From TrEMBL:
Record keyword Kinase present: yes
Enzyme class: transferase
Catalytic activity field: ATP + protein L-histidine = ADP + protein N-phospho-L-histidine
Keywords on record: Kinase, Phosphoprotein, Transferase
PANTHER family: BACTERIOPHYTOCHROME (PTHR42878:SF15), TWO-COMPONENT HISTIDINE KINASE (PTHR42878)
Protein species of origin: Rhodopseudomonas pseudopalustris
Domain Histidine kinase as annotated: residue spans: 356-576
UniProt xrefs under SMART domains: HATPase_c (SM00387), HisKA (SM00388), REC (SM00448)
Stated name of the protein: histidine kinase
Length: 579
């Protein structure tokens, strides 16, 4: 144990001397139910000074008073706390209150106890967030000085860390705000606001931009500098302020004086900015470091605003060019539309001429065909005329092919004409299909083919009998044309109350996937070839589709592939759809 001369003596009749009211002092709380402890502590620390700051000692005499004191003074740096007061654990309960309820993590707590056994040192240090543990009997004046000095230095370091964290949070928050500004004026106002928030002071500020040369302009001002906002020219400021700004541009670096801060920023695009702040207090080292960090990021914000303005101008120019181009395209589209109408009229005229010419050609071709057949009969009696008969046969075959091609051309011209209409009437499609089958049997018999028909007794459908007959006839003649010698062709009619289904199935060359994709187009030549050298214009299936479409029906084809035959299916609505 220390000698008695070293033990802190509690003197009751001494008063601390007066201190200057405006000096910055460390706040210390003494919380103990023994008034003598308070007086002795004041006496022992009466001449205490650290970093030029003396002490301001606040007193509380119970745990309850200690709670009020700590809540009212969040800037207390250290607490000298007794364990046993109104209860055996009043001091420890106060520690819990300080740390967990008012969340004061920076204040340093020195626990003092006169009865160490009731608050074992190891358990208290482990279970409670205190910073030092002293028995009152061992707390001499020198040890009190040492413990308090260590506590205050620890508090000072924690405060700097808290200030740094707060400042960095402001910088991070300010970055997203500053970079969103779309004009130099708004950005300048935001800079002054964020710096004041960063330093947690009320200050007057001015932000000056120098774009090129020696001229500069005031972008923002606060406090006593507000009157300079928007001022430009050679000498826009008062003489003393003008001198400070010019000196900042000349030095090109930050300057920190007693109550004045000058921030110099140079952007990546070569522009220079000076921010001058007038604050009521001197900035700490932490404040200065944060200001320098903030300044280093400002150049990006200024360049961001400049780039935005340039982008806005470029976008405006682009919109003008797009508008001009749109007008030009609109005019060109009108010209194309006019030309398209002319082409449509020319195409209609072409179709009309084509139909007329094809019709006129068919009559003489019929005569030629008839005369060749008569000539064949006359010559057939003379066996020596075999060569003549062969030549006549060639004429007849060529004429038949030409007649077939003209028939297709006539149908195509009629399908494309604008004045074609469907004359709907009640038609027995079962009977119609039977008639088409009978009409095509001679052609099938020439190739030793068999046509089978599976139809109901009657199947009434509202349609144009001539057009539908033409469509079915095209499918049946195609089946004969592309089926092999001795092949079978099947016609089937069925359906339900809503639709009539007609199927034409052959045993021909079938359809490849490529054939199926372009089956109903005009002038499409498929991979399969007619099996007896018949001619094909590639128009028959396109005419079928046109006729069925005009009736509101559907036509499709199925095939297992080349060599597997094919099935064509026509679906016609039993009654016309309501218009």
């Amino acid at each position: 144990m220390a000698d008695q001369d070293d033990i802190l003596q509690l003197i009751e009749d001494s008063e601390p001397g007066p201190e200057p009211s405006n000096a910055k002092r460390w706040k210390i709380a003494v919380i103990d139910d023994d008034p003598a402890v308070h007086e002795g502590t004041r006496f022992a620390l009466s001449d205490y000074s650290l970093n030029g700051q003396t002490l301001e000692i606040l007193s509380a005499y119970s745990g309850a008073e200690g709670r009020e004191l700590m809540r009212a003074n969040p800037d207390i740096a250290a607490v000298l706390l007794d364990v046993i007061m109104e209860t055996d654990a009043a001091g420890l309960d106060l520690v819990e209150y300080i740390r967990n309820e008012i969340h004061n993590e920076t204040v340093r707590i020195i626990l003092r106890t006169g009865q160490p056994g009731q608050a074992p040192e190891r358990r208290v240090i482990v279970d409670y967030d205190i910073n030092d543990y002293k028995a009152k009997t061992e707390l001499t004046a020198d040890k009190l000085f040492t413990s308090l000095t260590a506590a205050l230095r620890s508090y000072q370091q924690l405060e700097r860390m808290v200030q740094t964290r707060r400042g960095l949070e402001i910088i991070i928050d300010a970055a997203s705000t500053l970079y969103d500004f779309k004009s130099m004026q708004r950005l300048a106002e935001g800079v002054l606001t964020q710096i004041a928030s960063l330093l947690n002071v009320d200050c007057a500020g001015i932000l000056v931009l120098r774009d090129s040369g020696d001229d500069f302009s005031v972008l923002a001002g606060s406090g006593c500098y507000s009157r300079f906002i928007g001022v430009t020219g050679i000498n826009p400021l008062d003489a003393d302020l003008q001198s400070m700004v010019e000196e900042a541009f000349r030095r090109c670096k930050h300057e920190f004086a007693d109550q004045r801060t000058v921030l110099y920023v140079r952007t990546g695009s070569g522009r220079e900015v000076v921010v001058l702040l007038q604050a009521a207090r001197e900035l700490s080292d932490t404040d200065r470091s944060l200001v320098e960090i903030f300044g280093s990021r400002l150049s990006i914000a200024f360049d961001n605003v400049i780039l935005y303005q340039q982008l806005h101008e470029a976008n405006t120019q682009l919109e003008d060019r797009v508008a001009q181009r749109t007008r030009a395209l609109t005019q060109a589209n009108r010209r194309l539309s006019t030309q398209w109408m002319r082409l449509q009229r020319a195409n209609a005229f072409k179709n009309e001429i084509l139909g007329t010419v094809a019709h006129d050609l068919k009559n003489p071709l019929g005569v030629i065909l008839g005369r060749t057949e008569m000539l064949t009969e006359l010559i057939s009696a003379a066996s020596s005329k075999e060569n003549v008969i062969a030549q006549v046969d060639h004429i007849r075959e060529a004429t038949r092919r030409l007649t077939s091609m003209v028939d297709h051309l006539i149908s195509d011209a009629m399908a494309d004409a604008f004045d074609i209409s469907i004359r709907r009437e009640a038609v027995d499609l079962a009977a119609l299909v039977a008639e088409v089958a009978e009409a095509n049997r001679p052609m099938a018999q020439n190739k030793q083919q068999m046509i089978s028909v599976s139809i109901p007794a009657a199947r009434i459908t509202m349609c144009d009998s001539d057009r539908v007959r033409e469509a079915i006839d095209n499918l049946v003649s195609n089946a004969i044309k592309y089926s092999p010698i001795g092949g079978r062709i099947a016609l089937q009619v069925d359906g339900d109350d809503d639709n009539t289904i007609i199927r034409v199935t052959d045993e021909g060359a079938g359809l490849s996937p490529e054939d199926l994709s372009r089956l109903f187009g005009r002038f499409q030549r498929l991979s399969a070839k007619p099996t007896a050298g018949e001619s094909s214009t590639g128009l028959g299936l396109s005419i079928v589709k046109k006729i069925i479409d005009m009736h509101g029906g559907l036509v499709s084809a199925r095939s297992e592939g080349p060599g597997q035959g094919s099935t064509f299916i026509i679906s016609l609505p039993a009654t016309p759809a309501a218009s």
